[in-house]
Amino acid sequence: MDTKLLRAFVMLSQERHFSRAADQLDIAQPVLSQQIKRLEEELGSPLFYREVRPIQMTPAGEVVLPFAVQILETEKLVRRAAVARDGSTLGTVSVGYAGASVNPLLPRMVAAVDRCAPGINLDLKPMVYAGKTQSLVRSGELDLAFSRRPLIEPGLDERVVEYEELIFAVPEKHPCAHYNEVKIVEFKDDPWIAFPASKGSAVREAGIRLAQQSGYTPRVVQEGPDSYAILGMVASGIGVTLTVSSVTHICPPGVKFVPIAGGSQYLVATLVFPRHPSAATRLVMDAFNEEFPTPPRPLGDVYE
């Protein structure tokens, strides 16, 4: 069985969106569609319901998925064992990441680990909300995780990855779309789009806090599961949203990003890990630190 087809299947099962999965695999969307079709033909059963959005796995897909993941993990370990130097540490390190803001970092992180610790396999675990990742590291379900301050779970340590500036995303026909900067009070009467209140989103909490400091509570009319969906709704004219500078690479047509007036304000993106990590986890941290030096603290308000 061609593991390339299994890799396409697993990525699509994670992203539930052909275009995003193709981007993660660095292939064209039609190529991904062909790979999924070939795998379904080989297995003799459809793996996805394509007529729903986001796409869903069929019962056959649900059954196949854990075995596909196991095959891919074994393939990685076989390849790494073959190239590892004598005495090299071998193993798998699970890394939790959340949302569009981290996606651009992952290819460089993987390349750095391949270069510095060829015996280590990174098991990337996509999460929807960074608020969940700290507890998963503490419980041992993850070895490392991208998160945001504050660090609330005991027994963990962290290092700063990025200072993410808070900005507004508005429809291109919004009166503020072409402003150089905008006061938060300008959106008092606008409908807002936000992450779900029950998921512990630091971005949502920051938006509500800033609006209340300006004298009002935002009127959230729609919640979205991720930045892709939220910015898509902004593009459709449903409302405005507070987001972070690290997702501006998405920028769907019809969306304008506008800085906040009165000085820049930041959330702190971090990488969290146990205070006593395994040897394999330490090697990954060393590779990450070499590739991504700690950024200087910016001028402005930093929420910690």
Distance between the termini: 49 Å
* Proportion of residues in extended strands: 15-25%
- Rg, Cα atoms, Å: 21 Å
Which structural class is indicated by helix and strand composition? alpha/beta
Low-pLDDT stretches: none
Shape: globular
Question: Helix-strand pattern, N to C?
Answer: HHHEEHEHEHEEEHEHEEEHE
Highlighted features:
304 residues, alpha/beta, single chain, globular, 12 strands, two-stranded antiparallel ribbon
Descriptive report:
Keywords: Activator, DNA-binding, Transcription, Transcription regulation. Residues 1-58 form the HTH lysR-type domain. Belongs to the LysR transcriptional regulatory family. The chain is of the alpha/beta class and 304 residues long. Helices cover 37% and strands 24% of the residues. The strands form three sheets. Strands 3, 4, 5, 6, 9, 10, 11 and 12 form an eight-stranded mixed sheet that branches. Strand 1 (48-49) and strand 2 form a beta hairpin. Helix 1 (3-15) packs across helix 2, helix 1 (3-15) packs across helix 3 and helix 1 packs across helix 4. The chain is globular and about 60 Å long.
